[in-house]
Amino acid sequence: MTQRKRLSNTQSSSQSKRQPSSLVAQEEDDDATFTQPSTSQVQRGLEKLTPAQIDQKTAEVVQYFLVKDQKKIPVRRADLVKHVVKEYRNIYPEIIKRASRTFDQVFGLKLVEIDAKTHMYILINKLETAEGISPINSPANPKMGLLFVILSVIFMKGGVVRENVIWNTLKKLRVDPGEKHEEFGDVKKLVTDEFVRQRYLEYVRIPHTEPAEYEFHWGQRADIEVSKAKILEFMGQLHEQDPQSWTQQYREAHSCPSSTQASTSSQR
Amino acid sequence: MRRARASGDEEAPRQNGSAGRRRSEQLQSDGDDGDGGLGPADLQHDDNDPVLRREIRSKYRDLIYSVQQNREDMLSPSNNKLTEVLEQANKLFKDVRQAREAALDAQLLVVATDLGKEKASQLFAEGSAFDPTAFAEHLLSFMGLNRLEDEEDEQQNGGDGYLPQDAWHRLARRAECCFRTAPSFHYMMGSFHAEPPPPKQRIERQRKAPSKEATRIMPTQLKKMEESHQEATEKEVERILGYLKTYYQDDPTSPISYYEFVIDPNSFSRTVENIFHTSFLIRDGLARMYLDNDKLPCIAPVEEGEVEAGGSCSRKQCIISISPKTWKDLIDAFDITETMIHPPSSENE
């Protein structure tokens, strides 16, 4: 209610500020229609604002990201603009630039746009975690263990895996998707809904299957956040085997130019 | 060796499935000719026999179902089940005459191809193969599974051995280094919910409460209460005036003691009510109070002619207080045994 009210306020205020009515009309169906302002537009927008105003807005954006990151669900650009940036949308690129600088220099985090089409952002840790030991004495999140198992199986199986392979593996680990688990609750929901919304996993229907069957892929967040090289290393430890003996996986883990793992693995 | 064979089986239906089928059908019909068992007439007859058609379709469905159900088994490289299924399908296919049956055959082919693809992917893997079952076993060991100890509820899950409470925590801690997850930020003063609490429930409750019936009843009730209350007071005041007048008319010469008039020896609350209602008579000038020779208050109704005369004389006010104690004292002092103003309910009786 209040949000809607606020939104309408911002719309009317932005209407008075900016002349092109077509833009205002577009804002109403916010999502994909938010158009990135041009550099000259940003420049003009910046001239109208004091540095303190821009800093304030940047701080708001930073806080929004931090709070949203608690649940690890990516932030949509449309939501960000609607709830936080609001009438500053004409200088949006500048605000994002400043926010990612803050994350980089103050928090040691990296703001990543995971999907150029839907414009979703996530935060990842820039700092390397030391092997084995958690940097902070925070209690480990058991869900990460579950996620690790699933991602590992997908990766080791070449990137795609049928859901029943996952369910069977989990059953062997005493986690039955049909039953309520004391640690994970509704396992099926956690895996096919929460992990999917967090973009750790993709859960897609296999075409031409009747009844419908599904398979798992790595999600966009996993691609950026999870190190295949380190999974393979752990895998080697578990199997008491040289990670290089999984030739294909080893090659993949150490040769993805797009993802950030490339740099970390070359460091080692 | 086995693997090579398996891959051969799978490649065939994928690449030239239809050709293969046609060939096998031809072979089959050649065989039939050789046997001489089935002539073209028989075939003609089969085409329209609904029982046979249904049987074929049912067999196909069973076959598809069994493939779907035993998928994991069939994937294992140590058996030839896929080949067996394909051979069975070939046998069925020789009787296929109608489009629906052919469609089922095609569906089975999809399932089989899919299986073949997965089997093939097992072969493609260079270097070591990855077996999720072995992986799960290693994980269980890592998580601290004690295979010697048995716990009853763990056995339900099909495994043996006791998995410690912190098993998943242990794994999560080790796996953490594979993730470059941003540590999530929390307020020191408790949690702050990023989303506003859904006001759904409240809305529902509000909607439920003033249901049609309630809205209809509530105002009428209120109105009635107000009306009846006012009316009750007025009625009561009039009733008391009636009593006062009758007592006065019975004997106009003897004064009516105020306390004797007002006090109900059986009920303190009735007494208070009587005092309250009588005060209206005084206020409206329908009754007057005076002190007799013993300085005791008396009450008398005001005659019609006197009303106007009384209006001119100065008004006096006084407050009467009464407590259960003074009430009892008064009852004793005036020796009151009966109420002069009967309660309305008893009057009705």
Automatic annotation (TrEMBL), chain A:
Region (Disordered): 1-42, 245-268
Highest taxon, organism lineage: Eukaryota
Signal peptide feature range: none
Ranges of compositional bias, category Polar residues: 33-42
GO cellular component, one term: nucleus
Pfam entry (one): MAGE
Chain ranges of the MAGE domain: 54-253
Low complexity: bias regions: 11-22, 258-268
SMART domains: MAGE
Classification via Gene3D superfamilies: MAGE homology domain, winged helix WH1 motif (1.10.10.1200), MAGE homology domain, winged helix WH2 motif (1.10.10.1210)
Protein name, per record: Non-structural maintenance of chromosomes element 3-like protein
Automatic annotation (TrEMBL), chain B:
Stretches assigned to the Non-structural maintenance of chromosome element 4 C-terminal domain: 255-341
Keyword annotations of the record: Chromosome, DNA damage, DNA recombination, DNA repair, Nucleus, Telomere
Residue ranges with Basic and acidic residues bias: 1-13, 201-213
InterPro entries: Nse4/EID, Nse4_C, Nse4_Nse3-bd
Subcellular location(s) per record: Chromosome, Telomere; Nucleus
Disordered as annotated region, ranges: 1-51, 194-213
UniProt key word DNA-binding: no
GO biological process, one term: DNA recombination
Nse4/EID protein Nse3/MAGE-binding domain residues: 105-155
Family to which the UniProt record says this protein belongs: Belongs to the NSE4 family.
Subunit structure of this chain's protein: Component of the SMC5-SMC6 complex.
Function of the molecule: Component of the SMC5-SMC6 complex, that promotes sister chromatid alignment after DNA damage and facilitates double-stranded DNA breaks (DSBs) repair via homologous recombination between sister chromatids.
Name of the protein described by the UniProt record: Non-structural maintenance of chromosomes element 4
Organism: Channa argus
